[in-house]
Amino acid sequence: MPKIKNIKKVLVIGSGPIVIGQAAEFDYAGVQACLALKEEGIEVVLINSNPATIMTDTHIADRVYIEPLNAETIERIIEKERPHGIIVTLGGQTALNLGVELDKKGVFEKYNVKVLGTNIESIKKGEDRQLFKDLMQEINEPIPESMTASSLEEAQIFADKIGFPIIIRPAFTLGGTGGGIATNQQEYEEIVAMGLSQSTANQVLVEKSIAGYKEIEYEVIRDANDTVITVCNMENIDPIGIHTGDSFVVAPSQTLTNNEVQMLRTSAIKIVRALGIEGGCNVQMALDTKSKQYYIIEVNPRVSRSSALASKATGYPIAKIATKIAIGYNLHEIKNAVTGKTVAAFEPSLDYVVVKIPKWPFDKFATGDRMLGTKMKATGEVMALGRTFENSFKKAITSLEDKHTGLLHYKFEEYDDETLIQECSIQDDRRMFRVAEALKRGVDVNKLHEITKIDVWFISKIKDIVDLSTSLEKEELTEELYKKAKEFGFLDSEILSATGLKQEDLDKFNYECSFKTVDTCAGEFEAATPYFYSTYGEKCEIEEIKKDNKKENIVVLGSGPIRIGQGIEFDYCSVHCAWAIKDMGLESVMINSNPETLSTDFNIATRLYFEPMNIENVMNVIKKENPKGVMVQFGGQTAINLAPKLEEHGVKILGTSLQSINAVENRKEFEKLLSDLKIPQPKGRGVKSSKEALETTKELGYPVLVRPSYVIGGRGMQVVYNDDELLTYINEAFKFSDEHPVLIDQYLEGLECELDAISDGRDILIPAICEHIERAGVHSGDSMSIYPSRNISRKLQNDMVKYAKKIARAVKIQGLMNIQFIIKDEKVYVIEVNPRASRTVPIFSKVTGIPMVKIATEIALGKSLRSCGYGVGLYPATKLVCVKMPIFSFQKLNRIDPALAPEMKSTGEVLGIDYSYKNALLKAFIMGGYKFGGHKQRALISLNDHYKEPALKIAKKAFALGYFFMATWGTHKFLEKNGVPSKMIEKFMIDKLQKRMKNGRLSFVLNTPTTGKDSQKSGFQIRTIAEMYSIPCFTSIDTANAFLKAVKTYDKGAKLNCDVVSNYRKKKFLGIF
Amino acid sequence: MATLLLEDGTILKGKNFGAEGTKIGEIVFNTSMNGYQETVSDPSYANQIITMTYPEIGNYGLNEEDFESKKPECLGFVVKNYCKNESHYQSTKKLGEYFKENGVIAIEGIDTRTLTRKIRDMGTMKCLITSENLKEHELSENFAKIAMYKFNPDVVKTVTAKENYKYNNEGEINIALLDYGCKSGIMKNLAIRGCNVSVFKADTKAEEILNGGFDCVFLSNGPGDPSDCHDEIETIKNLIGKISIFAICLGYQLLGIVLGAKTYKLKYGHRGGNHPVINLETNKIIITSQNHGYAIDEKTLTGLMSATYKNLNDGTLEGFKSERLKIYAVQFHPEAAAGPTDASIIFDEWVEIMKKEKANAKN
After folding, report:
1. Nearest 5 degrees, angle CA B354-CA B359-CA B361?
2. Contact in structure between A117 and A326 (CB atoms under 8 Å)
3. Considering CB atoms only, which of B85, B116, B313 is closest to A346?
4. CA dist B30 to A506, A509, B45, Å?
């Protein structure tokens, strides 16, 4: 009865590359959706440009298109596949916007495609500011008063009516520049004037400021039968004024009375009904702290980051249920998978507290603007569940995986008490830590509330935690105190450092960690959800669940919060590992702390533990599970870093052993290994002091590459050209790694290549060798790369394979391995070996069809490579050609230099696939958001001396393609001398340039940076402004060269293919390989 | 240290944050994540000890607006974590103070999830709550007390109004409300829809009401086993067919008994704010607030009655009506408090019916 008739094939639109504000949560939602559709026997067609996702695996969707996410391509797919329905509400804002665009173009009508779930009209009502405002007025729901003003006089009328504070937002500017909050007349006039001048439309939006109100969100689901439920509500610990994605969040709400909760719930339901949502919807609200006045801030008529969080917080699978609703089921017709008895038409009841904390990239971007506001800056988030707020909050802080754990590790010693209190008003990533430090120094809770507007309830709870840490420092550690500390979520390591005791002293208390189940119903019904969190002093529920269980289990370590350098690709690997373990008839046990990801869906592994990725928390799980061993090679550096400590505890590391890991990660051992194996490597050395560093560079000669050992994503890595730079960077590098030496290597400016391999320690299978477009010196995560490689001779490829095999055998790799090479002067140098899953595993798994993680898992569990059935050696390439392009989120982060460097900066990636290099390259640029066609404008060229000569060819090429140049003085002279005309521009003419960029009269910028991190440098300014106005800005001449090649391909009228990945792969390569 | 003893031999220790003393009652759990103020002041909890499944309780203190009755009728209150630093602009009192003032024993630091699961598996149990740290040698004597304890069958009479009174007198509909332990939310909801509510003690005789010139009768919620309420049943018998009757919770159960249906005790009851019920006539679903330990067995509905609502979780009956007798009754709580207000449409519907009938009577 319920299923909509004649829907047998459905197109799902994904969300594209990971950028700040749109991350792994949509892979989680997408996979849930695809599986929910397949469960109903529906054929699923999927498009997503993001190759690192699990949703783009062929067993998730039936027909997987890794193609550009634009209306044109989707129309082609619709024409070809003729789906009966389309779902646009599961792929974030990207899919939603595409849905609206396709509808407007009449594509759905033309091909008779039904928009499933929430319809386009409803989406528009939720998304369009004016339509939404009208609707809210119609149904009497309050929104903050606002108006659009084109002059100071108009704006004044509003201010006279509303009073201060007022938020001013310039209309149609990118990156939120020029806005602000005015608290008085003078500020108002200044900000409005500035906003008007910044806006391309000479308009500002002025809005009543509700900063300081409580920020509350509701996750609502509605079906076609008009049943509406709220899955959960969430309260932002940070009041209105900070983007919810950048806020500390707790679920359920803690400081609202039942009356307030119901008032807002009723309002949220009314709105969702008025919008006509059929599926999931997020409603954000602001509540006054001194009255029942509330405002609706916004709605998201789709699944969102918040809905992923709500799903993990409650155990209620929002995306899955929304999908079932989209194909015609009603909530009361869908079984509650958790209890197996009740139905999906209910509201979860939590018997624990959930805390979410954002993970910001400022540890990597030290120069970045840490201020938080209306623009989201976090790359990821962590979540913790506990039976008390203190416990959840403390565990969430541990989950951040900062260098030190705890609330008080930033000492803020540089601040006297007065300054510290003042600084608590500053809304940045460290505010909560300043509040904690202020509490430690005895500042009054109410005073901190006045300054921060954070509710007294939260500050009091934080004070309880801080007070306990003081007790640990000052009092004798009694059993009672120890137990309380554990119940609060303190780690033994923290207690030891506070008390100066030894682990044996704590062990004698014999206070064991126990685990509770997340069951959506607070224990009211029997439920067999395999989803757990830790607690102390309470009955453990694991034993009863494992009671009749004789199967062996394997623990899989996840990769924690998404951060730059450790992204969704490791979730891909963890999930596939868990699946492979289950396929082998064993149980998989997942531990992870990231609520956005698929790995923390309780349906993935046999059992899920939502815990911090700290050794103590991981060991607590291991003690309960008593696993056969632990998989550390799939969870990125987070998991690898735990390996030594796990082994100390006597836990078996499956796959590549700790000894092998050390053999390649320890500089000295690695160097010796390569020289023993007679494999060429750049000369280098680990140093532990500046003096040693200077001695080393004297011997090696500049340029050299400096980096700390044991790092994530090349943090603190840099090419330096002289002693001054060396000393600056070496001091900085020591900040990140004081236990391990700093590495100094000869910098070889050659062709960088990498391979991923699977080995059982005897044989080796190499699915792919790829080459980078940018020459060595750019982090591999930030460089464009090509597969199959184009510029590596057969001989050199053979060398690489030979070296890989030698290394795999020598260190007895059992599983995945990634090797990076540089080719210079027809010689292959090995620069890095990663004895674990790499960033490229999802891509190579897809383009080759080799289930890399599955094979690696089987090997780690004892199978031989040969028995896995994919052969050995270098896997033959097919006619498929792909180009990976990194995607950056600079527009979200102010004051970050977009220049490519050895330090990774990208947040995501896209993959252009076709049958020829030139087509794949053009596709990659299209996927990356580059615009082609249209009138060619001037291009700005500014080169440092090092790159002038090599760039000449490129300039000539661009000129031939129809570009004209503006160039800075030195570059202008150089081009003139070489017969390329250009208009000279002074470096200080930034304003003029900015205007040009703002008006779209600049096609691209080619700027090779001069060294130094001085943000006042004009190059830095030009790059950041270009980024702000989305003007392509190339800082490597190789990227620019590739771009021009793509332009040429486009101009010649290239016919891009559009097909499922498996078809591209089918055509065998008939060439020389 | 305070102590909680369950009928099945379970001993739990925690910290007292309420009154001193010892009480014996029935232990039940409530799954609402907020609204502890409404819950503890709901008279239907008379003779009961409530454990909240949500672990952080007391966060926003108590305010003057949200009480459901003048004083708590529950005997004890069991939580995981009691909040000492409550925070809310309306708060005038700490939850613990309220308990101390009203003789309610309260324990924190209990593994309430394990307790809840025990109640779920074993059913609601008799239980002793004491502010004292019972020693090993005192246990058997106290367990014996539990075993001997009998629930007061006249519990309704302990919670009903001491005197009859009027709530609102500016409305157009005149309702006689039989107070079995009525939550003030019911009266509020009727009053804002234009009803004058005359509240009568539970033992009021039918004639007094029939002679009062009322438009209809309202039977309230209340505590205890409906089959113990002999006097109340007698009164209702004499009202049926003579005046239209609307009822909630205990009132619904009593009406059911009068019309020939049977009630039975649920294993662990429905107490919380997330119970989905389906309207059998319209197929629409609402999320309701519930608090009941007994239910009407749907199979025993007589020809006079037709089922109107069902619980989607366990399929139990949640409402019936008899258009011929002008009887409308639901098991759940349309007044919510605590809990979602989806079911307030029941009041809209009922007052609409009352108005129509009043108009008909005039003609």
Report:
1. 95
2. yes
3. B313
4. 37, 34, 11
Please provide the CATH number assigned to the domain covering B156-362. 3.40.50.880
Interface test mutation site (partner B, options A331, A524, A536, max chain B beta carbons within 10 A) = A524
B137 tagged catalytic = no
Residues of B within 8 A of A265 (CB-CB) are 340
Residue among A82, A92, A8 nearest A42 (CA): A8
Asked if residue A737 has pLDDT above 60, the reply is no
For residue B304, give every residue at least 6 positions away whose Cβ sits within 8 Å of its Cβ, in sequence order, or none: B259, B260, B322, B324, B325
- Close Cβ partners of A672 (under 8 Å, ≥ 6 residues apart): none
* A357-511 matches A933-1051 in fold: no
Minimal Cα–Cα distance from B206 to chain A, Å?
A: 36
Percentage helix, strand, coil, to 5, in chain B? 30, 30, 40
In Å, how far are A34, A572, A714 from A54, measured between CA atoms? 11, 6, 25
DSSP state for residue B254 in the 8-state scheme: H
The CATH number of the domain covering residues in A514-654 = 3.40.50.20
Chain A residue numbers touching B37 (CB-CB < 8 A):
257-258
Residue A133: CB atoms within 10 A of its CB come to 13
Q: With contact defined as beta carbons under 8 Å apart, do A819 and A840 qualify?
A: no
- The CATH code of domain A9-116 reads 3.40.50.20
**A348: nearest CA in chain B?**
B274
B56 to A522: CB separation less than 8 angstroms, yes or no: no
Domain boundaries, chain B: 2-151, 156-362
| CB within 8 Å: A254 and B56 | yes
Cα distance between residue B40 and residue B49, in whole Å: 10
- pLDDT tens-digit map of A170-228: 776 544 556 788 989 998 998 898 888 777 678 888 999 998 999 999 999 999 999 99
Give the closest-approach CA distance of A288 to chain B in angstroms: 10
B111 contacts in chain A (CB < 8 Å): 537-539
Residue A1020 in tokens: 């830095």
Residue of B nearest to A458 (CA): B87
A824-873 residue pLDDT tens: 999 999 999 999 999 999 999 999 999 999 999 999 999 999 999 999 99
| A556-575 tens-digit pLDDT | 999 999 999 999 999 999 99
- Cβ pair A257:B37 closer than 8 A: yes
Looking at residue A178, its pLDDT comes to 63
Domain A145-208 classification at class level: alpha beta
Q: Cα separations (Å) of B68 from B88, B101, B196, B220, B248?
A: 19, 17, 18, 13, 15
ipTM over 0.90: yes
The CATH class, in words, for B2-151 is alpha beta
Q: Is B74 a catalytic residue?
A: no
Has B216 been annotated as catalytic?
A: no
pLDDT at A76 over 90: yes
Alpha carbon distance B219, B252 (integer Å)? 7
Residue in chain A nearest B270 by alpha carbon: A524
